[in-house]
Amino acid sequence: MEIKVFVMPKCPKCPLAKAIARRVAEKYGLEYVEVDLSTPDGEIEGLMYNVVSTPSIAIGDDVIVRGDVLPEEVLEQEVLRRLRGD
Questions:
Q1: Residue 85 in this model has a pLDDT that exceeds 90
Q2: Mean pLDDT across the chain, nearest whole number?
Q3: What is the pLDDT of residue 31?
Q4: Are strands 31-36 and 2-7 parallel, antiparallel or unpaired?
Q5: What does the alpha-carbon distance between residue 84 and residue 5 come to, in Å, rounded to a whole number?
Q6: Considering the entire predicted model, what is its pTM?
Q7: How far apart are the first and last CA of the chain?
Q8: Four-CA torsion 30, 62, 54, 46, nearest 10 degrees
Q9: pLDDT, tens digit, for every residue of 41-72?
Q10: Which long-range contacts (CB under 8 A, 24 or more apart) does 60-66 make?
């Protein structure tokens, strides 16, 4: 399972979203992936996930937040729910 964070270079909320996602990924042994929507490859990947605003976070194939920073506790709950198979 991976945590994927969709970002843009000038996004003011992205550094916080990246830090939270990275901490949660490390805590639970998940892969952390950053997708820059300002690149051609990032733009394509964003379209595949239907992401048009940053920051956005996906766990596996599920986008759990679009255009906002998710509190760390909420992200952890989402990760745990998926690890348990809920």
A1: no
A2: 95
A3: 97
A4: parallel
A5: 22
A6: 0.93
A7: 14
A8: 100
A9: 999 999 999 998 999 999 999 999 999 999 99
A10: 60/1, 60/2
